Amino acid sequence: MPVGTAATVKALTQEALEELGASIILANTYHLYLRPGHELIRRLGGLHSFMSWRGTILTDSGGYQVFSLADLRKIADEGVRFRSHLDGSEHLLTPEKAAEIQLALGSDIAMVLDECIETPAPRNIAETALKRTSEWARRARNHFLERATRNGNPPQWQFGIVQGATYADLRRESARQLLELDFAGYAVGGLAVGEPHELTCEMTAEVTALLPKDRPRYLMGVGQPEQLADYVAQGIDMMDCVLPTRAARHACLYTHEGRVLIKNSRYASDQRPIDAQCTCSVCRRYTRAYLRHLFAAGEITAAILATHHNVHFYLDTMRQIREAISFGQLSNFASELRARYVAGPA
Amino acid sequence: MPVGTAATVKALTQEALEELGASIILANTYHLYLRPGHELIRRLGGLHSFMSWRGTILTDSGGYQVFSLADLRKIADEGVRFRSHLDGSEHLLTPEKAAEIQLALGSDIAMVLDECIETPAPRNIAETALKRTSEWARRARNHFLERATRNGNPPQWQFGIVQGATYADLRRESARQLLELDFAGYAVGGLAVGEPHELTCEMTAEVTALLPKDRPRYLMGVGQPEQLADYVAQGIDMMDCVLPTRAARHACLYTHEGRVLIKNSRYASDQRPIDAQCTCSVCRRYTRAYLRHLFAAGEITAAILATHHNVHFYLDTMRQIREAISFGQLSNFASELRARYVAGPA
Asked: Is A240 assigned a catalytic role?
């Protein structure tokens, strides 16, 4: 899922997302709650109408951003109290409030509020956070179902989030507790935050082994292009990451031969496309030399073209993963992906 | 002509320019000479190939930017010596050099180097600058024709630039001197730089009265949308201006009812398109509320959508002007344009 923090995937229009074949994007509850405000978006007909996006929208709970505020937030059983990074105003985010905001936003998939902790975490911290996460999930689920019952059909799919840091038994316990709440899908949170890639995969596998096969499984906030197939191999169906869009704005382009740091002077007169194997509209039309020039000149067009290419690269990698699965070749494809990135750029 | 300073119209891809129906754009010799360098662009096959633009390209001479450097430049009969705004390096721009750079860039229309002076200018300053401009035009024309003769067919159309500040007799003298050099087209420079609009029109009319009807006439660096028809009424065929693109990035949108400063809180829940009468892809899809939000959040997408709309508005105004001419209604249309902008935004 491309990340559209403030109801826009940075540097891409919705037409561009459609051309790229993006079927689902993620939007951030924290950002939209603060600006322009969820009540405004509700009045304007919800996020789909507000941003004119017919595809699917997943909203996070706002928790991850709030917990990243560090000095600006305070956690209690009730919820998390925080100050806006925009104007310092004080807010209280509870499991019920996070669910309510997402109902107002009208996303298709809503995430429950979870407690995000720093890793590596001592076991007692992880246990406390897990207990709170499970309790919050129960409250969020109750609030959601009460609203859903009141209004007829469920307006959204609500996903639970498995926590438990890097403790396999806590991960399993978290999954079991969430399963009792019968969510429409399940996410794995709090991973890929600095621990080794192998450990991320191991923890993911512990969780996916317990999750029902007929519900989506979502690994949050990943990943590097060469890791995507590994996560799918652990049973993951959905991922989100700012990497393709953020790296693009910092002139880092993904290719079938590895990363191209396009500002490098070696590309100044390089008439090849960003990626000779890529079929995106940028690679069909523009040269590395032109991209390099646009970045050197600080042009907005640089961000537009680079983002378009990188998002295409990620979505195309996922298409290749699906194809590999259909041919029973996922494991081979995962090795191939890793090899490209060890070898480095052309 | 949309302005594509550094071989890109800011925030628009070439695909977007094609969708907008832009048939010609302007690129800046000064900027491209300094970065990425005209010799690099020559090696890469010229500007058309470099930026992948099949439409027409007009390049200015670089003079206007160099003269704007003020403290960083020194003028003599030979040419103008200046320091780069990028790295302070010293350069000499002569009429021959300006022609040569544009040959390297491979634009379709090249402008001669002229002396740009501040206005209002005392008559003796205007006379001296005019004399130098005419001499430079002669040298530029000779250099160009010599190169053209050497290589067969003319590789470009070269345009002369009429100067003379706000002195009608100097304007006429400048035009007559340029006509002797038999340029492919003629520009009117040094106007719309602070003098009243009526005076701009008056000076333009003095010049166009002398110019051949079968050669393009180009008024440089204009204008406000409500002024475009007035300039055409004075016999002008071509104009360039950074206004539609620059204003867009500063959240100023042009509409059939006047300017909309989209950051204004009055648009926060405005579900109308930017301009109800506009047929551009932005007005067909997005609301004022969404545009306002994107600007408030500082999103790149704001610049993309706003620029798209404003460039469409300018090109559409020119289409309406051509239509008005074909119906003998140019004067009425010019009045209508002015009225809209006096009335102000909806």
From this structure: yes
